[in-house]
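Q: Here's a chain of 401 amino acids. Please give me its 3D structure as tokens.
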Amino acid sequence: MIFLPKKILAIGDLANTFSVLKKFTKDYEIHLINFPWDTASRITESDDVEFFDSLKIKDQVRKINSIKSNYELVLVNTWAGARIAYLCGLEYILFFVGSAIRAPLFKKNPRLSYLDKPLPSLNVFERNFYKKILDNAIYCGANAEDLLQELKKYRKKNIFKIGIPVDTELFHPGIKPLEIKKNNFTFLSPQRIGLAKGIDILWKAIELTKTDFEVIQVKWFLGQRTAEERKINEDLIKNKPKKVRLIPVFKRNDVPRAYAGVDAIFGQLKNGLGATVEREAAMCKKPVIQYADPKFKFQIEDKEEISPFLPHSNESEVIAELIDKIVDSKEFREDLCEKEYNFVKKIADPVMIAKQWENLFHKMRDNKRDSKKLGFRLKLRLLYFLIINRLYLKKIRKNSF
């Protein structure tokens, strides 16, 4: 008997979450389709991704409607992806990996903690539309505890947390280094430039250090949605320390080689949990500086453990001392590197995480709803969205921020 894997469609992949999952699932075959956004996120994508031919929502809906019969389930981790799944009447899992649930589109005047002003609001009809998108998902999940707590504010049932897998085929010790011009001890900072990643904290810490080193910062930005965010990013570039050198974004397959080509990595210094960058760098056996809030515990073999990443405070003075210690002491950085590597192997094993996803897929297939009855309602959904979205676009053009 020939075994045919069950097919899943993933729409709108962020941080390569679904592309890693695609490699390690056994019982399911995942096809990725993404939006042709002109951003650095497209550059960092893996190669095996299909892109929509158009940014027009009607064209995207037409594309998905033409292929949806080939797939049993759908994964989305952007509001744009969820919107298409909802408009096409698909059965979808909505998985949050960033600020999309911290400042959800269905909330009036959504705020991010690091900005003084709220983000621009959608009109009331469109906010209701996106709340229906959240409510209509069969399951909603998050990749970290802080995001799960945000999700719980808006949804009580069928929610879950699954961690971030590391692509161990791509990120592992012994990678051939990328040739990077450097003159002394060198840190790589691959995080996007912005307050949410703690780049302001890093800049201040670098100015307080006493040792000789250089920092290579990838020039791409977090958040350009408002004038305030754009001004913040401009000021961060303008006021970067002399030790920081900017480089262009490089392709996804060059990321592990870039880690191998430097001496240490700067990760997130804001949220206390860390994410993809820190774990991928640790799997390449490079020492990583990442703020690890000790209040967050990780379940490992029936025990709760605190992350070994350092520091446990995101005060710039503490970070500066840690930077100097890593530059000065080979023994210290090798010990830190080993602890981080062993920790990430346990919490980000892609085979383990793929199995967790497959268990969720099994449940979802058992609880599938009959979408054949939607019929004409899907056309009304699309028409409704196009009308309310046009009202929003008129507002933006009139009151440009």
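Q: Can you summarize the key feature?
A: The first strand starts at residue 6 and ends at 11.
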